[in-house]
Design goal:
Blueprint (H helix, E strand, L loop, with lengths): L3 E6 L3 H12 L3 E6 L2 H10 L4 E5 L7 H9 L4 H4 L2 E5 L4 H10 L3 E4 L4 H15 L16 E3 L2 E4 L4 E4 L2 E3 L3 H11 L5 E3 H7 L11 H13 L9 E4 L3 E4 L5
Parallel strand pairs: 1-2, 1-3, 3-4, 4-5
Antiparallel strand pairs: 6-7, 7-8, 8-9, 10-12, 11-12
Helix pairs in contact: 2-3, 5-9, 7-9
């Protein structure tokens, strides 16, 4: 079995070597880029399974790198991003998620936690296999008016136009769409997404839903597909245009 390719974008060479050694022993091949420009150049040539991205780098910081990744096309734009940061303010985490990161890990961190978060993000990003022969189980697309969600291809489109979401945001959308018409609390939504543990008061769920609305709503400030139920949570509309 070939090791899973990862891209680490971080100006700390010592940390990068430590991370590469630790993850290498767990079945990952880590390619290191020392700054944002180099990281984007590597990503343009070969899309890894996941990008580990440091926030505080000289020159182009991690937020700008993440923003540029999400502006790319094809698989490069959808690559999962795990952001690292020495900044401990919870608001920084929300900003990172708003930019398009899939997860956020503050520095300093335990290597075992980094490994666990990488596995969780990849588990969400990779469709589960089914069947005795290991072939992927076929699931019919979910259709709501002009919105179509292809769970097998992990493709989202609105009136034929592709929409880009992070892997976690796609899974959140699928979890709500599969329960269309039901009012779901934040806890219920989070429990429906495998491999993710969040506190009930964690505002990141609201941030992600805000990003989903920007992708699928005509007017994200007056949503008609994902509705807010004050004091409870959200409901994905069963009948849509």
């Amino acid at each position: 079995m070939h090791p899973t390719p990862l891209l680490l974008i971080d100006d700390d060479a010592r940390l990068a070597a430590m991370v590469a050694d630790y993850l290498g022993a767990s079945g990952y091949a880590v390619r290191h880029a020392s700054d944002g420009e180099q990281g984007l150049a590597v990503l343009a040539q070969d899309v890894p399974a996941l990008v580990i991205l440091d926030w505080m780098m000289p020159g182009m910081d991690g937020l700008e790198v993440c923003r540029r990744i999400r502006m790319l096309s094809g698989a490069a734009a959808r690559v999962p991003v795990l952001m690292l940061s020495a900044k401990g303010d919870p608001m920084d985490r929300i900003i990172g998620l708003e930019i398009g990161a899939d997860d956020y890990l503050p520095k300093p961190f335990e290597p075992r936690e980094l490994l666990a978060r990488i596995r969780a993000v990849l588990r969400r990003h990779t469709p589960p296999d089914g069947g005795a022969d290991g072939a992927a189980a076929q699931q019919p697309p979910l259709r709501f008016g002009g919105l179509e969600i292809d769970r097998d291809a992990r493709r989202l489109s609105v009136h034929g136009q592709d929409c880009e979401l992070t892997s976690y945001q796609f899974d959140l959308l699928v979890a709500m769409a599969e329960r269309a018409g039901r009012v779901l609390t934040r806890d219920q939504i989070m429990e429906a997404v495998r491999g993710r543990e969040l506190e009930a008061f964690d505002r990141s769920i609201d941030v992600h839903i805000g990003r989903i609305r920007q992708a699928i709503e005509v007017d994200s400030k007056a949503p008609r597909r994902i509705l807010t139920v004050r004091g409870v949570g959200y409901v994905f509309a069963k009948h849509q245009d």
